Amino acid sequence: xxxxxxxxxxxxxxxxxxxxxxxxxxxxxxxxxxxxxxxxxxxxxxxxxxxxxxxxxxxxx
Length: 61
What we know:
By secondary structure, the protein is mostly helical. It has one domain (about 10-55). Helix content is about 65%, strand content about 0%. Helix 1 packs antiparallel against helix 3 (about 40-55). The longest helix has 19 residues, at about 10-30.
């Protein structure tokens, strides 16, 4: 069984991922038009999650 040592993400990684997630949610549910995010809503939310995941899995990221 493999164990992963999780570390907290840096503050910058956390803030960027929350910002991306909020943009995607605003586009999806509040009908806000943001040029790039409006076209790629799911991909923006996925990028936010993957950034946060990388911040947890890799030390010093």
